[in-house]
Amino acid sequence: MNKILKYLYSIILIILFLIFIGKVKSLELIIRNNDPIFPNLNEVLDYNQNNNELILRFVDDYYDLTKLLHYSIDVSVTTNITLIGCEKKTIFDYKNNKKGVLLFTLTGFKKDSVRIENIIFENYYTFDVGYNEINLFYLKAVYNTFYFHIKNCIFRNNIHTIGQIEVENHNLKYIKSPQVVIENCEFYNNKERILKIRHNNQNSEPSPYQNLSIRISNCTFINNRSLIHSNNAKILIDNSYFSQLDIDSYDDTKAVIYYSTSSDEYLIIKNCVFEDINIQKPYPLFNSNNLLLQYMYLISWKIINFIFLDSIFKNIYLKNSLPGIADATYSSFSITNTEFNSFKLRNGLFGDDSIYHLSNVKLKNIVTNSKYLFHFLYSNTIINYLEAENISCIGDSDDSAFILFDSGELYRTLIINHLNLRNCTSNGPLIKFIGTTNELLIKKSNFINVSSYGPIIENFSNTVNIKK
Question: What InterPro entries has UniProt attached to this entry (predicted)?
Fold first, then answer.
């Protein structure tokens, strides 16, 4: 009887809110863990969207989500909604349950926003009740005019997929700014996928990824199992840290950090650090275009433009003969202000049949027993400011090189400006040319304490022009 009275009391409070603040442009409510309206959080959100903005402030340090009357907070969004914790961050504790799932549905064309700030989501779990498709938060939008912002939040010790974004996108308008922003967030000890993206674009022009943009900025990912499963989206990952990653338990997962199920994707990685990653299963960190995977290389892609900018890759040890960073074909790589440190490989850093432009790249403490560390095949290549220290190319005697340049039957050029090699060894020449006709232009370069089996530069081409 007391529970019924409390429920009626909370409904009365909600009605009073509607009567007295109906004309207010924005409504701000303070929700406490012991408030009688907290268990009815679903109704609070549903019945108070009569203004331009609804702000719910969770001012206590801790909230027990098992107190909620409903398993899901299912909200049809018609205004701007903000859920914000206290300054030191508010804990939403699921207590190994699934009560408190956040479901946001946006069917309107106007740019409504959902913001979540300063909240710690922990101990979310659903597998014991068989709800494998219920995520901690789920946002579904009919148009791509929405805005979803997660800021200063922590997700830890959750045993299920954390979030899913699903966009139908009947809108034909290209929107430049990202619709989803996740910034200054931390992810620790989560046992399943972090984010799944489904973009069912109804328009083929422009490319689908241009209609859905997601930015992940200043985030930390430590001891998680799989991060992003994307479909037709543009994703920027900036200034973030990744460590101790592994694969999740889903059958459709094909990579650890990023997996795409479409051939129309765009991924940019800037200012990121990847370290202490030791995957013992046959999955790369990145995979796109549904390529057949082997074992423990980083990126598998076909026909894509890829940018490495201001990034660090280190402490990577591979146990097979696949490329260390990318097994990409017919692609273009721009690698700028990037460091590769402490690698043990049985192949080169990158695959064949792609175009490479390297600028201000540092290589340190790398060992490979392949025929090459870099293999530039059938394409013109430019290297500006490359520093290499403690590099060991220990492949077969007289058949190992730091750079193998193969022009094939075409005339191709390798341009090297400011190459500095120090304490490097090779079981063959450092730079090896094969093909019909090619040209090497090398300027302002230094070779210090370099040991090679044979000459530093060796030519097996019919014709080669070497300029200094």
Answer: Pectin_lyas_fold, Pectin_lyase_fold/virulence
